[in-house]
Amino acid sequence: MGKKIQSLDLTIGYNFLGILYSKNTLSDNKSICPQLTDDFLQKLNSCIGKLLYKLEKEYTGSNINWNDCSVYTGVSGIALLYVRLYDIGIRPDGLQTALKFVEPCLQKLKNAKASFLCGDSGPLCVAALVYKRLNNVDKYESCVNQLINLRAIAMKGDTPDEILSGRAGYLYSLLFIKERVTSVDEELIRSIVKEIVRSGRSYGDPDSLGVSLMFEWHGKRYLGAAHGVSGIISMLFKSGLVDSRQLSKEVDCLRALQFKSGNYPSSLPIGSDKLVHWCHGSPGFTFMFVEAYRKTGAECHLKSAVDCAESIWRMGLLRKGYGLCHGIAGNAYALLTVYQTTQDIKYLHRAAKFAEFCFDYGKHGCKQPDRPYSLFEGLAGTIYFLVELLEPMSAKFPSFDDV
Ligand SMILES: [Zn+2]
């Protein structure tokens, strides 16, 4: 499923013509700041306009499933896109549109999962953010209080640790609120981090794998960003509450699992080398290595992130489509994070090439996702990525790397 699209020859190398040009932006000429060319930006803007038109024309009526309020595949993810469109100036009424989508979700909370992507904290965080921007203090405080009450679910024994629907996803929510909305009790954050570490140690395998932290989901030890250890470790780094040297050692052990291709397995025991997604494979691992490098400065982590980016360039144009979770937009974000960290414009160029592929959205014979308009599987995620490419140095994989 992670096969590259054979019709596009990626072995040619990179041709800057038409996508990037370099110009000196600092007077002392010490730093070269690459820019997307006017021609490319024009095409990018035109594609954003075209895809937004498609989303707004088609995502109405029975095409909206109001029973799915999640950020991952549901209505709150669309709301999050509109907050971004508002921020970047593309939709001046974006906050109102976001509210139209997310407000009904607050009446449909299920009190079953605490994570951002698939649980109640997604709609609560997105609503809190919109209310904050609209200066509605009572309402955002109410959302934050409800979010804090989800701690009980996050701490339950049968709650998994993963990003998608578990504790690390709840941890993300707390960091999201702390960064964008209001202060959060540090002890609450610490208690979730402690629980994740405790749980990780109980599945750890220091003898054969060397890892002290490992996690289980549905009886399996997953490694990728959505369900597995790489995503959880990224979030532990982001919390700033676990010793970076300790996490760095875990990252060193996980590095040993790399396939010859540069990709990483999705779970243990190691199976075949076929998935190159944010959810499973090297794109998700990239963020962990970048985070480890940022926190420790160890060059080995940066080298691993670059290795991941190389594997994404070779194998990351997917038949699964243009989305974030297991699609081209998500893989492009991994290239962008390597560009931001290394300042090597090769990776900006490659992310732009992936964007260029999205310019012909729906015309490559890729698989139609189950939730075709959603943030993580579908059109909204592609638009989110294309919009962020307008400012590539600040682009961050949403709902995961943007805290
Ligand atoms: Zn996926």
Automatic annotation (TrEMBL):
Provide the organism lineage as a comma list.
Eukaryota, Metazoa, Spiralia, Lophotrochozoa, Annelida
| A GO cellular component entry from the record | plasma membrane
Q: Which CDD domains match?
A: euk_LANCL
Q: Which InterPro entries match?
A: 6hp_glycosidase-like_sf, LANC-like, LanC-like_prot_euk
- What family does this belong to? Belongs to the LanC-like protein family.
Q: What is this protein called?
A: DgyrCDS5245
One GO BP annotation here? peptide modification
Is Metal-binding among this UniProt entry's keywords? yes
Q: What SMART domains does the annotation carry? A: LANC_like
Query: What top-level branch of life does the organism fall under?
Result: Eukaryota
Q: Where does Zn(2+) bind?
A: C279, C325, H326
According to its UniProt entry, this protein's organism is Dimorphilus gyrociliatus
What residue ranges carry the coiled-coil annotation?
Answer: none
Alphabetic keyword roster: Metal-binding, Zinc
Q: Which Pfam families match?
A: LANC_like
According to the UniProt entry, its GO molecular function terms are:
metal ion binding
